[in-house]
Each structure stands twice: as C-alpha cells, then as structure tokens.
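Figure S4 source data
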Amino acid sequence: MAATLRIQSDWSQALRRDEGEAWLSCRSPGKPTLYGSLTRRGLSTEGVPDIAASEGFVVGEVTKITCLDISSGGGLGISTSTDGTMKIWQAANGEIRRQLEGHVYDVNCCRFFPSGLVVLSGGMDAQLKIWSAEDASCVVTFKGHKGGILDTAIVDRGRNVLSCSRDGTARLWDCGKSACLGVIADCGSPVNGIAVGAADNSLNLGTPEKAPSEREVGTEGKILLLAREDKKLQGVGLQSRQPVFLFVGSDAFNCCAFLSSTYILAGTQDGNIYQLDVRNTNSPIQVIHRSGAPVLSLLPYRDGFIASQGDGTCFIVQQDLDYVLDLTEADCDPVYKVASWEKQIYTCCRDGIVRRYQLSDL
C-alpha cells in the first residue's frame, strides 16, 4: 500500500534539495523503512506547488505557510497554515512542540504576546483567538468581524489587542473581558495590514468623542497604521479614533511598519516601499522599488528593515536605508512573512518551508 504524505511546515518532514527535489522516509512498526523522493513540477493555477511522489508514496495535500513569529526570548516559533492549523516549534531546530487546532479554513496571521507564553491568531473564519503556548488550549475567541482577519497587533503588554479584516474594519479588543472595545476605523475597503506605535509628540492625534473605556490600557499617545486595499495608507489616533493622515499610493497596500515614532514604512502590490514622515505625509521621503512583485512583509531590524516580496526576494536594508543585503533571490516562492531574533531571521514561503538565516555582524 502506498504511503500518503501530507506536506506541511515541519522541518523534519523531508530533506529538501535546491533543484526542487526532497528525499523522504516513512517508518511503520514491524515493517522495513520506506524511502522515496518528492519532485516539484511547477505551480498549479491556484499558485500551489505541483508535487510528484516516487513509487510507494502519494501526495494527498499540499498546504502553504501563511505567517510566522518568534517569541521574545527566541526559543519558540509559531507558524500558520492554509489547512486551518498552527504549529509551535523549537526555533533552534524546528522540532514541533504543539499543534493548535480550532480555526476553520486558512489561518492568516499569528504573533506571540510579549510574554512568549501566549499566541494571538486570526483566520478566514473571521475569528480572533488567544492560545496558551504551553498546553495548546484556546483560552479566548473573539467574534465580531464580518470577513476574514488579515492582520493583528498587540498594544503594550497585551491587555488590549487589535485586528483588521476583509470587512474593512480595524477593531480593538479587551482580552480580560473577551469583548470588542470599539471599531477604530471603518474604511469601506479591506485592511490588509496594521501596525501600532507611539506617536511623535508634535503629532495631533485628535480628541475622543467620548471618554475611553477603563478597559482600554496603553492606547493613549498611540497611532494605528492601516494598509488598505484601495491604495490608501491611513493613520488613526488609537484612543481618539480620529484620522491623522491619509496617503494615497500607487497600488493596494499590503503591509506597514514603524521605523520610529516619526518614520514609517508601507509596501504595495506593485512593488513599492514607501518611507514616510508621519508629521508630513504629503510626499514620501523615498520610494524603494526593486521589482514589480508585491511587497508582502516589512519588519524593522536594527537601524533599517527587512522586506520580502512575491517573487521570492527577501532583503535587509541598513545604514540610513542605503545598504542592501539580499537573503534570497527572485527564483523562489513568495516570501509571505519575516520574523527575527537577534542575528537569526526566519521566513515562510508558499512552498511550505520555514527557513532560518544566521547573520554575521552587518
């Protein structure tokens, strides 16, 4: 009988070779070990790798990793998949520690709370969930969005969290009461990414129309960035719910990040990375364009940032955003998300593999 292999994000599933081939083995109690190989033949029309298995193996399903994060101490990693599951693994060697199950359909985003013991996730089922990284239990489920959740953010230590959705809204949640504290913005267009950060003191964040709930913790002086599908990057006062700025880009915005309380980044579907000053967003400080592939992830790193794109490129921009170090070239699968801890950088791709890069001093 042929062995059915479900290709997942596990590092230990197969030994991958650069030319698109991977060796694998399957051991059953009392039976000889079965050895074989996988060969990638290209991409399907849905963008999923077309995988062929050698004799004795059958490829039953191919899933892709959609997001990942590394805990604050660097010991654990979390990754999400299109099969509705998440995995917690040892960052040092990829050994799976826990599997988190509870979402329906794709899990789009995940991140560790600052403690490194709790995980926040959002999926296409429009549910936002909080999990224990220690026993894999789901301790809280938030419901309120009318469309799939595309990104999340954590306010300070995590008594409040944020989410954005295909329904065009960004919402603030109270973890202790498992309740929505309010809609921060209703954009009328999907919000693909969000980021929260402390605002420059000179920035006018607006005044709340009513007194904030006592359950809001750490929202004062914060600005929320919204990367919108309708080509707009918006800044909103987190506590006031008032618009701060609205910048129109060249295409749909996929992601955004803070470089500091003054400078921000945002990436578009047509490959532009905008650097803006929140005090004056009339024109960008600079626009970085390396290819026309979508910018999928932006992550502050040291005195610069890491970016990944839909053509498989992943690169570090350093030294006043003038020096570029390429981690991958443009012949790989799209790199959906980047995470880092100290000199280690982790990426997840459509091919279902988490890769780790060890950097020397830049």
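Figure S5 source data
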Amino acid sequence: MIGIQSKWRYLFMFLGIQLVVMALLSREGYHKRVTYFIRIFRKPDSTSLTARNHTMNGINAGDVYANLSHLSKVHNPGDDMPYCPKTSPYIGGPIHVSFPSRLTLAEVQRKNPLVVRGGRYRPPNCEARHRTAIIIPHRHREHHLKFLLYYLHPFLQRQQLNYGIYIIHQAGNYTFNRAKLMNVGFREAMREEDWDCLFFHDVDLIPEDDRNTYVCDSNPKHAAIAMDKFGYKLPYKMYFGGVSALTPLHYLKMNGFPNNYWGWGGEDDDIGVRVSLGGMYITRPSLKVGRYKMIKHKLDKGNDVNPKRFNMLAKTRQTWKLDGMNTAEYEIVSRQYMPLYTNITVNIGTEAGLHAPPPTPPAKAAGKPPGKAPGKPPAEPPAEPPAKVPAKGPANPAAKLKEDRPGLTNA
C-alpha cells in the first residue's frame, strides 16, 4: 500500500514540475492549451459559433451596420441640438470585413439612407464635434470603390462625424499621379466647406476597427499602420502610406504634397519627409486599432513602378518648397454629386506640363519650311488653351489659402 502511494506521489510531482516549466517557458502557450482542453468538455451553442465566425486573431468582430439601424431618418437643421458626446456610443471596435461578389452601389445606397447627395452626412440627433473630408485618388477602381463605400459610410457614422467623401478621378490614360490628385482633392474640398480634418485614403484599404477615429491630431496622423498585407505590422518607421490625416494648417506647413511622382511608389515617403521638414512629427494609433484589410489586386495599367523615385526622394529637402500646393496646376473636367460621393474628374496633365506642346512636324524636303507645300492653305494657329484651375499660386502657400478661406491663420 505504501509503495503504491509513493508512486502516485512521484507521478503528481513529475506532472506538477512539467506544468510549471511549461508555464514559465510560454505563459500564453500554456493558457491556450488549458483553454483548448476546457473547450473540449463544453457544449457548443449557436452564440459561440456565431462569435467564432466573426473573430480575427482572437478579437470578436461585428457587423459594421449593427448599431445604426435605430437612428432617426429625420434631421431638422433649425433645431438646437446638443453636441455629440466626445466618445460616440455607437463605436463597437473590431469590424468583420468580407467582400461579397454580388455587392452593388444600389445596395450600399439602400443601407445608408441618411447619406445625402454628394456623399455627405451629419448625425441626425446631435451636433458633430468634427468635420472630416475623405479624399480618395481614383482611376479604373470601381470594383474596389463599392466595397470601400460599403464599409466606410457606416464606419464614419458610428463615430458621429460630419463628413463628405470626395473621389478625385484622373482623366485620360497618362501615368497615374496619386499625390497630385490628393493636392486637387484638398483644394476642391476646402472650396466647398471649411473642413477641420482631411483624410487621404487609398481606395483598396478597408478599416477593421472603428476605434480608429477619423479625426485629426495635433500633428499629422498615419492611420493605416497595421495592414494585413504587412502582417498587421508597420513595415518601417517612416512609412506614411495608405491612409493619413492632416488639418489645413498641417497641409500649409508642408506645402501640400509633391506633384512630380508619376507612377507607383515614392510619394508616401516624400510626404513623410515633408512632415519633418515642416517642423512636425507623425502620430499613430495602436497596432490593435489601426488595422486595415487590403483588397487584393494586380498593379494597375498606367501605374507602373516609378524608376525615378529614389533619386527624387534624395532631393526632397531641396524641392519641397518649390513643388507642392503652390505649383499644382490642373483643370476640372466635371463635378458630379452622386448619391454616395462627390466625383471630381480632373486633368492633371503629364510630366511635360498641364498642356504639353505639340511635337514639331518633320520637314518634307530640304530647304522647304513645314506647312508651305503648294496647293495647300497655311496651317491655322493653334487654339488658346482653356484656363487653368487654379493658376500657378503665389510663392507663399499660406497666403493663397487665406485668400480662399478668410480668417484662416497659421497660429
């Protein structure tokens, strides 16, 4: 009898030591193992199965439309309403993101009845504390746009923002220029309303947590710091791509964005350098909050990798005051107020300028000037180009914005 008790005693001691070692080596791993064995003996229910289906990396994720269904559809501008609370009661945290194949813009519009013409919204039962414009550079990305709008509208409504969504569509087939389109978006959005914050947003990035509030900080903010593309980690310290936020004064201090990055790559790092040169620094949310899912796609036609980007980045310190908001030239082709967004189609020209000079025709014969062939009338002079919008601005970008927005100061 004594021998059997001793064997059990040694066995329990051996198991106890093993458990202690396992706990010390990996507390998290030990916890997961214990949890696993406990779940084996639990009877699963429908609630736990639903939660499991909407879980990402251990965090329960919900429907982005879940807590908006009871909002009133009537908004009386004349009523005196209180300010919205500093923390919105509709914020729910992690969001379950998927991409249904049959989604249409009509369905997105149906699910967002409070969004009015031009993609504008304000809370129906309180006065918003923040006015945010979303600027989205765009060309040939309609498939991605409908998914972004499906998630972004309720995402912003849950934060009780007064917001507007602007799609800046590059006309023509010349190489894509994301940063210059964002310059256009800033200028045109500020012409419409005195926004206090502007979010510059890639069309293929979907936010996964509404605690990542779309309001500006005291310094430029980089919101998309944890993309699934990069394993939900910041790829490098100075990365400023994907989704970023600036106030009008931040924008002035850094002279806007560069206009000369044609093609993919480089402009985000240039903007990050401009933040530092403007006497500011980059703020970020936590990795748990600043999460985004990227819609997978191939590199767009007309947006090839920019081979000059590294040489241009090396010169940012010399060029940032000479290339930016104060030199952005473009022409508005059309402005359409769609049910879910404002679409601004714009001609931003080419690397040769807004209106590149026509190529010189070759002479038909030696000694004979072009256009003087017998039997043909002389060529007509070229037509005057349309007016530029805006024309080349003053050397001081702050002075130009003050003209458009009286009362704005650098203070």
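The longest helix spans residues 2-25. The CA atoms of residues 63 and 96 lie 6 Å apart.
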